[in-house]
Amino acid sequence: xxxxxxxxxxxxLEGRIRQLEKRLSIxxxxxxLNKFACLAWLQSRIDGARFPRRDAxxxxxxxFVDLNNMGAMNASIGHFAVDNLLVQFARFLESQVHDEDVVxxxxxxxFVMMFPRTNEKDARVVIExxxxxxxxxxxxxxxxxxxxxxxxxxxxxYGAVTWHRRSVTTADEVFRAMSNAQAEAKQLRxxxxxxxxxxxxxxxx
Length: 205
Fold this sequence. Notes:
This protein is an alpha+beta fold. Helix content is about 45%, strand content about 20%.
């Protein structure tokens, strides 16, 4: 058996490593970045801001997006139908952002959007635009229970945190603050289920 050229072998191994890294960073159900990849992306931007350059990112807004009533929907139309809804929602979020923005899935029906160069004021405009688009959209899936197509209008809560360059911190701390903002958005929705539940905070280290 002919031995493989060492350079070819190295190139092959490097290719396999890149494929493995990609698989480990992608949510298999939606094709979005997973939580760990999102944390890594954010941490790299936070670290990069410690060495100011003209093109350095001065602010990043991270938005926790949590879909409403998915437990009841799971019971109503079934697990596979809900999985289909989550995939459609992932595509919807991707359609609402720019190339430099990041969309990921944290867990279950929880997603994250990260907007570089976006402060609190601009973030509210963006989130309200996305929420308006979601309220106007209708998803169609086949019910596990009946086999018939059903139309679903998704709703969500938004908890956001804006990190500014002067705040020395970690991505984990920003995500924790984002989760706390999301908890406040959940309380807002409980008080007024029909209103847009949006909470935006300035990150404080």
